[in-house]
Write a structure and sequence with these properties.
Blueprint lengths: L7 E5 L16 H13 L6 E11 L2 E4 L28 H13 L4 E4 L6 H10 L7 E7 L4 H11 L7 E7 L5 H6 L4 H15 L3 H9 L1 H4 L3 H4 L8 H7 L6 E9 L3 E8 L1
Parallel strand pairs: 1-6, 2-5, 2-6, 3-4
Antiparallel strand pairs: 1-8, 7-8
Helix pairs in contact: 1-3, 4-10
Length: about 270
């Protein structure tokens, strides 16, 4: 068991299979740099990675337990070869069972899925951090009700894994309104205000930070413009719950595609 705690992360993961499309999608340079730096800043190679992706939700918290997870190509309109991408990291059935037990012990109903594979919210970021796919990976679903308190509780239940060499990542996007982005030229200022609120909130004292984020729909400016549906924001709650009293550092921030500000954070 390591003598340090692994940090947790909320990472903006970009769109589709972008790491394999650098020529077609050249505007991801800063995000790529930040993800490579995440790996460089880790205290050691993690024993395993637990990802809570905005691209998987179930009625109850569900954890993957396949020893060799398949791929989930949950995007459309990309070149044929992107539907043959492989990120062959092993799963970790033992860790999956431990995650389920921790959630159950916290009063959160949970399930095991032996067939579910990695979605692009997982393999796009991990490909850049661990390109050899040699670190075991499991995924935890969101709960379909998006209840902030339930996801905070899940993170609190899983916090002990940080002392066992497990890296916990909430994978989403700090701004996720693709329809507005494509259709409107007025997204800049509302997105800036939301990103500024999020950054200030993440730097607030722990108790205030938790309350502000739990009540984000009433506290944040333009919450429904930033997240018409919150599946790309709620992974933050799990990462926060697992590091609720820790210092936060913004590890990625840019004006993405010249249209909106977005961010990623390290906790701990």
């Amino acid at each position: 068991m390591p003598s340090f705690r692994f940090p947790t992360y909320f990472l903006s993961h970009g769109g589709g299979p972008w790491p394999w499309l650098k020529r077609e999608m050249p505007f991801y340079e800063e995000l790529e740099r930040s993800l490579v730096q995440v790996r460089a800043d880790l205290p050691a190679t993690p024993k395993a990675v637990l990802v809570i992706s905005g691209h998987w939700e179930e009625d109850d918290f569900t954890v993957t337990a396949s020893p060799q997870p398949p791929m989930v190509y949950d995007y459309g309109g990309f070149p044929d070869f992107t539907y043959k991408i492989q990120y062959p990291a092993p799963g970790d059935p033992g860790l999956a069972s431990e995650v389920q037990q921790l959630l159950e012990d916290a009063g959160l109903t949970s399930k095991i899925d032996y067939e579910r594979g990695f979605d692009h919210g997982t393999y796009t970021i991990l490909y850049l951090m661990f390109p050899n796919a040699d670190v075991p990976v499991i995924q935890l679903s969101l709960r379909r009700d998006y209840d902030p308190e339930a996801h905070l509780r899940a993170g609190r239940a899983l916090a002990v894994l940080r002392d066992k060499g497990v890296m916990i990542i909430g994978s989403g996007f700090s701004f996720h309104n693709l329809r507005e982005l494509r259709a409107s030229s007025t997204v800049f200022e509302p997105a800036r205000a939301f990103d500024e609120w999020l950054n200030n909130t993440m730097k607030a004292p722990p108790a205030e930070r938790t309350q502000f984020l739990k009540n984000w729909l009433s506290e944040a400016p333009n919450p429904r413009l930033a997240h018409p549906v919150e599946e790309h924001f709620i992974p933050l709650m799990v990462a926060l719950g697992a590091a609720e009293n820790d210092q936060v550092i913004r590890v990625y921030h840019e004006m993405f595609m010249g249209r909106f500000q977005c961010s990623s954070f390290r906790l701990g």
